[in-house]
Amino acid sequence: MTSFATVLLLLLASSTSQAFTTSRNTFICTSNRLYSKVSLYSSSNNNNHEEKSFETSRREAVATSAALSAAALVGATPLSSLADDEEGRLIEFEVANLDGEEGKTGTFVIRTKPSWAPKGAKRFEDLTEKSFWDGCRIFRVLPGFVSQFGINGDPKTQSYWRSQSLSDDPVKVSNTRGTVVFATAGPNTRTTQIFINTGNRNSFLDNQGFSPFGEVVSGMDVVDRMYSGYGEGAPRGNGPNQGLIQSKGNEYLEKSYPKLSYFTKATFK
After folding, report:
1. Rounded to the nearest 10 degrees, how much is the dihedral formed by the CA atoms of 226, 193, 42, 67?
2. Strands 106-112 and 90-96
3. pTM of the predicted model, to two decimals?
4. pLDDT tens digit string along 203-215?
């Protein structure tokens, strides 16, 4: 019996260039519309910058085809087709102030993936080696989109790392839920700011150059409980101002945003 994969390949092969163009335009328009609402640019270098059976219906096959076409636009690969699950290193994060409440704690684990983004994975591991994440607040939490962190609570420590920009890694995998990515202030500006994709529709970030370097392998339920009540950061929202975090550190955050979840420790497993 003809397999579903064969049917799907035939559908892909028979798609006209006009249909592909329509799909591509729709994908890009959706990306731009979403991206206009929420930026993933950091203030690292500029304080002004701020996720079957053969009986499967033809509709499902066409939907799958569209998704594959969208991924092909940016050269991103679905996670399921990527290499060894055992590569990289495991890093456990201990989190306090879950749900914005003192005493509520939990842990989650990230595995770095050097085959996805070698420079990004190494920087993340280097920062872990130096206990950079300890005390860091998760200062920007937008449910169903991202949780962002990576400005050190000590302005002197942060000032040093702001000058240590990384060149970009190409985007090899899609920004699916649970992937871990550097925020940027433009091309080749990655330093220390990180976001975890918490949404299922973040693939539009792929062609913006956001390259996942790891993924959460356990504890996404903990990630989902990071406090989100302050909303988007200033000046677009009422959340923390990244420039003030850079210059004043945790002194500013503890006083003005005491409910933020934060890391008490991050260690290699």
Report:
1. -70
2. antiparallel
3. 0.73
4. 999 999 999 999 9
